[in-house]
Amino acid sequence: xxxxxxxxxxxxxxxxxxxxRIFVLILAVGIIPSVLMRxxxxxxxxxRAVEQRVNAVQNQMKILASHLISxxxxxxxxxxxxxxxxxxxxxxxxxxxxxxxxEGRVMIIDSSxxxxxxxxxxxxxxxxxxxxxxRCFQGENxxxxxxxxxxxxxxxxxxxxxxxxxxGETGVIRGVMLTSISSxxxxxxxxxxxxxxxILEALMIMAIFALAIVLSIVLTRPFNRVTEAIxxxxxxxxxxxxxxxxxxxxxxxxxxxxxxxxxxRVLDDSRQEFVANVSHELKTPMASMKVLADSLMxxxxxxxxxxxxxxxxxxxxxDRENQIITDLLxxxxxxxxxxxxxxxxxxxxxxxxxxxxxxxxxxxxxxVEVVFESLRPVVxxxxxxxxxxxxxxxxxxxxxxxxxxGWVKVVLDxxxxxxxxxxxxxxxxxxxxxxxxxxxxxYRVDKSHSREIGGTGLGLxxxxxxxxxxxxxxxxxxxxxxxxxxxxxxxxxxxxQ
Length: 497
Description:
alpha+beta; Helix Hairpins; Heat Shock Protein 90; 11 helices; 17% strand
């Protein structure tokens, strides 16, 4: 019950349609890269803009740091002369200019972690100890971008190159410039870029949406033509083979359908012939019995010998009709799988000997020599009744459709997985064009000759069904006028499905 409900729900999903799946696939393939491209462009711009802003500010800070050193800005003991006051005013002006230009704040910290200058005039004279400042005094430049609060913070060492003790040294760090600048201009540019990217993305999505609709319709159109052609055949408007060569897949589907149609035609012809054959086969014994019975009824004082001959003929016709009905019932049972296999471990050599012993009297009547060659002992898991049916039908056919003074050879062999039962004869053979039809019900290669022999035309159909029930195979090779060879291959171990 749950499986049925699940199946019903799945059948209602739109993605069960190939057209819908193609549409969604094209839409996803088009939209996902465009969305990723927009995010990639914006993120890449932000990263590069922040990097460029930091580099530009750092360069300015390094220039300013050299000015601070050259003018002894960090020297608290310098005389208050007019020259120093003028230098200080120039540097303060530079600091204010940088602060206004980058919408930020600059703090100059000396070696004792005291804030010498603050462009915001808030922390001057205070002690500033932080991780960034300490690491900068150790010679490491730090920069940090806080996108949530919209600022970039960086440190720049104030290096006195004049105090270098050796030629390879860069100098002594006298102080640190702690700079915070606004990233509002970057954010504004990102917003503008994002809006333009969104507009472009929306246009791309609309174009991809339209393209997905068109392609999903165009790409599934051949399958619609296949469906229409099949519906026409189903409705009876056409019985011709269909052709939709647009795709390799449609060619395969159409070829399979055409083969199915051809098979249905063959089955329909076989069914019509089957009905005709059944009617004929059942009607002929009945007509013969009626003629014999009417002859007896029309005569008075029928001699006992003649009466016995007539009754023997009637019994023969009854046996013939009973055989036809028995074969039909056996075939129907195998088709409907109403009878399960009764698997037993069986000695195939002994079974073959027993079957040949039963059929040798028939062979002697036609002066046919029956030879059995067993290459090794064979024990297999089979259904004894159906295995007997397979062997009996093949050997009996080889005897019946043989020539006078002919021969029948039965060879039994096996390997580690299968055993083979081969029946060869020196009989009349089978035409090449008839080999593909010999397993059809009531099919006769030579109808008149077959009726003289007395077969029902069901033996090979029953044989093949019994072989397939054992998960085996049956093949035939034949040369008209020279003989026929049937090879049955059946697994030694039966594995149920």
